[in-house]
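Anyone up for a design puzzle?
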């Protein structure tokens, strides 16, 4: 039974970088290689401009070798960065004012809850 299929988008972690590509750990058995030609449509001078060791990324499966637990991968033309939880928290124009206003109410509610238990 094949664990990965051609065309599938998989999640992995960059485990190594060489001049010719980036190695990706997919799970405890499978690992993959993103060849430098599969990094970008444009010229890639430095793979570290795209990925770094330890990055969690998404990649497209190009080929699977189940006998050796190897996968050829590509990050061309896909949103490969796992940016869902990254980024700065935007400060509201009110700052901490809503918290300051609500804090006495929350304290009062919690005190009532504690007394009723």
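Challenge accepted. My sequence:
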């Amino acid at each position: 039974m094949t664990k990965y299929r051609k065309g599938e988008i998989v999640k992995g972690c960059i485990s190594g970088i060489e001049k010719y590509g980036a190695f990706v750990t997919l799970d405890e058995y499978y690992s993959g290689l993103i060849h430098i030609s599969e990094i970008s449509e444009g010229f890639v001078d430095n793979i570290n401009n795209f990925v770094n060791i330890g990055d969690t990324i998404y990649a497209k499966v190009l080929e699977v070798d189940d006998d050796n637990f190897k996968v050829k991968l590509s990050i061309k033309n896909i949103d490969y960065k796992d940016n869902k939880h990254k980024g700065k928290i935007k400060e509201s124009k009110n700052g901490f004012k809503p918290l300051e206003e609500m804090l006495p109410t929350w304290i009062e509610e919690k005190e009532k809850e504690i007394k009723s238990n």
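A detail worth pointing out: The two ends are 56 Å apart (CA to CA).
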